[in-house]
Amino acid sequence: MDCVRCVQRGNGTLAPSPEPPCPPREGRGRGGVLPRHYGTRIMSDSRPSGRQPDQLRPVVIQRGFTRHAEGSVLVCFGETRVLCTASVENRVPGFLRGKGEGWVTAEYGMLPRATHTRSDREAARGKQGGRTLEIQRLIGRSLRACVDRNALGERAITLDCDVLQADGGTRTAAITGAYVALVDAVNVLMKRGDIKRNPILGAVAAVSVGVSW
């Protein structure tokens, strides 16, 4: 096992070190102990799936997956499958009316049998779980960060992210797929002449990484 220690070079990269991991020191945090150096352990063994520790799941993005939505994407991160659709509405939430700004928001959910055992539909339970709310807020905030809402005008784009099959990384797959669906929806608006300039300011993608020390 090699340890990549937090020895920062002038170019901002991390330098590998043959030394053992630094012992923890007392401090605030979980259990009252924090590591002196925040590093990443690179394991020599591959995962059960055959992937190396630093290897991404295979990523496949299929655009135009459904007919009716302005943007639709089936994104696959390995065995994880997420359907992301972008829907455009010519209205905005009440707090934005009359301000000339648009809105981008997201909703997230999992099919009952997206996992090994069936889970209840949240609609049947009558409320969304904390995990669902956390993830859809993360998706919405990530996408709003890359949009000029003034260029969007007074219209809203809702990204619906539905997990068809979960095998890890569902929230990062949802962010990545939702961005592509958002771009496709914006292209439809521009082609129709509904907006004059592209409101997309940059690209957004996500990946989850495990870190140990």
From TrEMBL:
What UniProt keywords apply to this chain's record, in alphabetical order?
RNA-binding, rRNA processing, tRNA processing, tRNA-binding
Gene3D superfamilies per UniProt:
GHMP Kinase, N-terminal domain (3.30.230.70)
Q: GO molecular function terms here?
A: tRNA binding; tRNA nucleotidyltransferase activity
Q: Which residues form the Exoribonuclease phosphorolytic domain?
A: 55-185
Q: Which residues form a coiled coil?
A: none
Q: Name one GO cellular component term.
A: nuclear exosome (RNase complex)
Pfam families named in the record: RNase_PH
Q: Name one GO biological process term.
A: rRNA processing
**Source taxon at top rank:** Eukaryota
Region annotation (Disordered) ranges: 14-54
Q: Which family does it belong to?
A: Belongs to the RNase PH family.
Q: What is this protein called?
A: Exoribonuclease phosphorolytic domain-containing protein
Species of provenance: Rhizopus delemar
Question: In the record, what lineage is assigned to the organism producing the protein?
Answer: Eukaryota, Fungi, Fungi incertae sedis, Mucoromycota, Mucoromycotina
